[in-house]
Write a structure and sequence with these properties.
Blueprint lengths: L2 H17 L6 H4 L5 H17 L4 E7 L3 H7 L5 E6 L9 E2 L1 H4 L3 E11 L10 H7 E12 L9 H6 L4 E6 L15 E6 L2 E7 L7 H14 L9 E6 L4 E2 L5 E6 L3 E7 L1
Helix pairs in contact: 1-3, 6-8
Length: 261
């Protein structure tokens, strides 16, 4: 694909974000679209947001757990960028009509980095040594692709289907904690919804973030000190609708809550 072709697709995704509309899957319209093409589209999509005044505060990993892969029929992880506009306060109410299209909630472990890490060759130990804190996190994924009919190239191009996210208030030193054994329990409107453990994401959140650092390294991108890194959902995605309230309890770490109107 030419740079012009890629820019046209990134402009379509940007317009879909701004005007809260959906697109037919890119993969159904562009035979031979590659993952490398999709990441170039994603970077151009991000650039449009940066021109608007947003700035990058971290990165996210998507489609890491078997539950999510089965739900979306996507068989490998992807990554996207987090901006300051995506960061909403814990306990706040998000207006779906004002900012989202077809949101779904994920409960995650967020890592907050104290040091830069850049692939290739990043290990789980490198990730743990670079992490200053972990925190409970809700990511609200939101696809610009109609009816979530995505293949890996579609979600990659669409900034890994990122919508908004919130971090719980707590910050916990991860050293000495086995992140794979951390358990999350999620409720929706006061009723039990799901539970999972850190091992759901590539065996450990440290493994998923190492994958991210090594993948980003191929594109010349660093996981930077101060970055918030969302390591992937521990539970199946759950649609969010006006009136819903989600609450998560990450054992031994803390809680996070989001409401929707």
């Amino acid at each position: 694909m030419t740079t012009s072709d890629l820019n046209v697709l990134s402009d379509e995704l940007y317009d879909a974000l701004r005007f809260q509309k959906t697109l037919a899957p890119l993969t159904s319209r562009i035979p031979g679209l590659t993952i490398d093409d999709a990441y170039k589209i994603s970077l151009a999509f991000l650039q449009r947001r940066l021109v608007d005044g947003e700035h990058v505060v971290g990165k996210k990993i998507g489609v890491t757990s078997k539950a999510v892969q089965d739900m979306l029929d996507v068989r490998e992880p992807d990554f996207g960028f987090l901006t300051n506009v995506m960061d909403v306060p814990n306990g706040s109410t998000v207006s779906i009509n004002e900012s989202l299209i077809q949101p779904r909630a994920e409960a995650e472990i967020a890592l907050i980095l104290a040091k830069d890490i850049k692939g290739p060759g990043v290990t789980m130990d490198d990730v743990q040594n670079a992490t200053e804190f972990i925190a409970p996190c809700f990511e609200i994924v939101d696809s610009r692709i109609a009816d979530w009919k995505i293949r890996i190239e579609d979600t990659v191009a669409d900034n890994a289907s990122c919508g908004v996210f919130t971090l719980g208030a707590e910050r916990v030193d991860p050293h000495g904690i086995d992140l794979a054994e951390l358990k999350v329990r999620v409720t929706k409107n006061g009723e039990f919804l799901s539970e999972g453990v850190g091992a759901a994401v590539q065996g450990s959140p440290l493994a998923s973030v190492a994958w991210l650092a090594n993948t980003l390294g191929r594109y010349g991108v660093t996981l930077a000190a101060g970055d918030i890194v969302l390591s992937g959902s521990l539970v199946p995605l759950e649609p969010a609708r006006p009136g819903d309230e989600f609450h998560m309890d990450l054992s031994g770490v803390g809680t996070a809550t989001l409401k929707f109107s």
